[in-house]
Amino acid sequence: MTINSVSVRDLSLSFGAVTVLETLNLDVKDGEFLVLLGSSGCGKSTLLNCIAGLLDVSDGQIFIKDKNVTWEEPKDRGIGMVFQSYALYPQMTVEGNLSFGLKVAKLSQAEIDKRVARAAEILQIQPLLKRKPSELSGGQRQRVAIGRALVRDVDVFLFDEPLSNLDAKLRSELRVEIKRLHQSLKNTMIYVTHDQIEALTLADRIAVMKSGVIQQLADPMTIYNFPENLFVAGFIGSPSMNFFRGEIKDRGGRKVVEINGVDFSMDAYPTRGPLEAGRKVVLGVRPEHVRVDEPGEEIHAAVVDIEEPMGADNLLWLKLAGQTISVRIAGARRYAPGKAVKLSFDMSMASVFDAATENRI
Amino acid sequence: MAEVVTLNNPSAKVSSATKPVAGPRGKKPRPLLSPRNIMIYGALLFAAAYYLLPLYVMVVTSLKGMPEIRLGNIFSPPLEITFEPWVKAWATACTGLNCDGLSRGFWNSVRITIPSTVISIAIASINGYALANWRFKGADLFFTILIVGAFIPYQVMIYPIVIVLREMGLYGSLTGLIIVHTIFGMPILTLLFRNYFTALPEELFKAARVDGAGFWTIYFKIMLPMSLPIFVVAMILQVTGIWNDFLFGVVFTRPEYYPMTVQLNNIVNSVQGVKEYNVNMAATILTGAVPLIVYFVSGRLFVRGIAAGAVKG
Ligand SMILES: Nc1ncnc2c1ncn2[C@@H]1O[C@H](COP(=O)(O)OP(=O)(O)OP(=O)(O)O)[C@@H](O)[C@H]1O
Ligand SMILES: [Mg+2]
Q1: What ipTM was reported for this prediction?
Q2: Model-level pTM greater than 0.90?
């Protein structure tokens, strides 16, 4: 039997007149790495703070390990938390920071020493134990902050954008370390970020949020390949998915999307229901799902506008059906601007959304 | 001297004339007597003299004997230095009531200032911490009342307070005055502490809560150690304010408990005998010495604390 590690039931939260979260539901499985992904101000931190008990919820319930903790103090919820600004106590040494919570909990000195030593070993911060936070680099500080959650010996880790204050190189290093930590500890982790790379690389499942509502909750590949609505499709992926507004047409029994007079066959598209002719839709195709100068069913002529070689990949910007689209091809294949090319879409990997509801068809 | 920095201002280059021998190179020469410098130093010297001259007059006068003062040249340094006036001001100068100098007032002031400062800062810092970090019910209302309190002219409240203290049996006592000082310091000090604690990173407070620390543990273990500058600011405000207070001292205490300022006034305005300017000057300097020393010792921290507290409203 798998129990849910964290369950959020009909959670609502408002700051005065501003409602940030409304009847939000979320189940996080035991040992799962769940990423809350969304743009700034969508309520990710608010949700995390509610789970931590740092904010009083307006309505709803929160369960951790099947225990109703809605009214519990943060310390009694069995959580550890890591903050964006590290939030290390400036006047204490690293050791003091790690042991503060344990001292407050009145653990024996032997137990405190044991836990601090273990956390320091896991995070490789033993040489830093006697230093003050001001004498540490950003990466070291964040390691200590993770250590402070680690020593609490809890079931659930909460991360609020822990890497966004670090530079790109450190960020990718620590990202790998957090993943390794999760693999060895097997704790439940809830991780807030607005960086989609972090989300895709770390998560077992991603919850994409927009203005306090979870848009889609699924594993990274499902989120990436089968976005549930237009927002998720546009939010994930860089460069962004190509979108075309068009209309479903019936061409002698075969369904197509007509975009500015150009037909795109829907035969290969894994549709969920019947495609009624006349329905206004948005066709979405990722840059890597456009084939350039390769044999295909439907060939469309286009002209290279700009080429952006990026090493492993080569990014082409072309004009098609009156629109600029981006295409990702292998880095070795070079195209000069102005060159005419033949495109075809991999419709089996495309996404089609209803233009009105913006939901996947 | 911070003002020197302005000399490196690029616009100052206009006034410097260099002879290009092999082309300009290295540090640009700046003539000391440019009109700009004359203006700056002139203004600074004038301002400094304006503030220092009275102090100078006081110090030299207090070191002269009365015959020398009668010669009338107040700016001339003492021909014969004597500390007699200082001793008299401290120990034997007479007010209308007694003849034990300022010492009585000094000790009264110490006994008023120290408890008032300590108590008011202790309470106000906890108030400010609670207002900034614990959003309790009615916090906004409480804060508004406090701020309104800060703007009510306190002359309005003197008579009601006299009555309240009388009813409590504290009128005329040191305790009564200490309570009054503590209450009147509360609005501004609470505001000061609230702003300082609000400016501290909120995530620090959250981290401490996750670590299981409660109201007092967070206050003593997390907030206090980070707040030395603002405590120094509050201390200076209170010590100087209470030490310099005259009105409350006269109104709320009996003569035997008069603070130093009141005692000073009574010595200086004493009508018996000749006016002893040297004793008066010495007494005035003695009374002002405490705030002066406080400023000198903690001036740097004061500036830092003011700057830190001003970050957030
Ligand atoms: N104390 C508060 N009072 C009023 N509104 C608040 C408060 N805290 C947050 N909000 C509002 O709630 C919304 C969600 O904030 P939240 O901090 O959860 O966003 P976020 O998704 O974490 O964004 P970011 O990526 O910038 O951290 C925002 O619109 C914010 O303005
Ligand atoms: Mg946030």
Answers
A1: 0.88
A2: no
